[in-house]
Amino acid sequence: MQARRGIALVAHDNCKQDMVDWARFNRRTLAAHRLFATGTTGGRLVDEVGLSVIRLRSGPHGGDQQIGSRIAEGEVDLLIFFWDPLAAQPHEPDVRALLRLAVLSNIPVACNRASADFIISSPLLTGRDPWAPELVRT
To answer: Where is the MGS-like domain (predicted)?
Structure first.
């Protein structure tokens, strides 16, 4: 039986299309889990990808803090946060707090498509032990 994970999906404005494209490619895998997303990102994932998403507030209006709260409560097992390192964010303290909380809670964090691909394809996502005899190649 596969583990059902809580996955938080967040994307800054300049990264939203990349998040939609990534989610569309990984739709089948994502659909097997509980998805949380900040406002606009969540709306696009619902409308453009057809995923079932628990939509929270927009990031600058408390959505980052709501995601952080769910991490603290143990509802979120991994954070996919496509952030824009070149654009100043008016809610930068909230972004830093969210990332700090994810690190303190020891949950995987992906900040770009490459790291998100590694996490989403890991056998650990489904709770399978990658060192189990049936998975180890000899």
So the answer is: 1-138
